[in-house]
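QA checklist item 7 of 12: single-chain prediction sanity check.
[x] sequence parsed
[x] length recorded as 360
[x] structure emitted
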Amino acid sequence: METLQEKIKLLKNKLAILEHRLNLDKKRTELRELEAKSVKGDFWQDIKAATNVMEKIANIKKVIEVVEDLNERIDIATQYDDSISTTDQNNLRLEVEEIEKHIEKLELDSFLAGEHDCQNAILSIHAGQGGVEAMDWAQMLTRMYLRFAEKRRWKTIILSETKGEEAGIKSISLEVAGQYAYGYLKKESGTHRLVRQSPFNADKLRHTSFALVEVLPVVENEVEIDIKPDDLEIDTYKASGPGGQNVQKVETAVRIRHLPTGTVVATQSERSQAQNKENALKLLKSKLLILKEREKEAEEKKLKGDYKAASWGNQIRNYILHPYKLVKDLRTQVESKDPEAVLDGKLDEFIEAEIKLEKS
């Protein structure tokens, strides 16, 4: 049977490997450079750029502090031997379990080493065919991701939203701000299928609904996405609510079409046309970045298999509420018999399995 000291030694070795994988020396260098930038006199002239830098500083500091704290706790734990009292042994066992949980979390974060994994995310949900049922399902998914973000203490901002005529939403785009937000959410892209008794049918018939989830990284200023003004077709219109009623008397909603690619984005959640235009451009940049990367990946993966886009044909997860209760991911085979908890944001098991599958 493995002794506590043997387990502590294994955890120390595991943490040393993680330190190397996380490249802490590089992070410390980057932190010094960012902190030097933050004390310059003109730093806050560009508030958005400055805010991004401060977020990076906080995120890097957090990783470094977590690793240093774990090293310190392991060093203290190694000072104990088998001669300590039963009470102290129990306390040490609890401490080792806590250290192990933190290292597992750190290990998961270390898998997120993609170019954009550490960035914020734009999460969009679109109701599929099926009218009010699908729109209600899109709203249920929105709540699920908002609850997941809330539990992780991530911030969320609605960039655009089109409500359904009777209930639910036709589509919504959210900016999710938090450490590794894109890395954690990116594998949620795809079609999500719901099976339940219809709440909109008097006979309570079983109904299947679909919704598409799309996840994009928030494109930072230093990422080069060349958008020429002549390539944009920009329309403004009145923002509308359920039933097509005008919620504003001025044209604050913005729709932008990128002519070379045919990509279209629209935002109407803000009262300011300028803010809606800024949000629309943010969405457009993210879409064009992913489009560019997928073209590159398609070339690189010709010998490894076809790339599967997040489209209606690629169902990734089933949520069954009737005639039995089950949520099953079709890629990782992870299951939960408590769909209510999953729909309340308990997604960790599914998302962690997706991340590990990508790295396997």
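[x] summary fact logged: Confidence is low (pLDDT under 50) at residues 242-249, 302-311.
[ ] second reviewer sign-off
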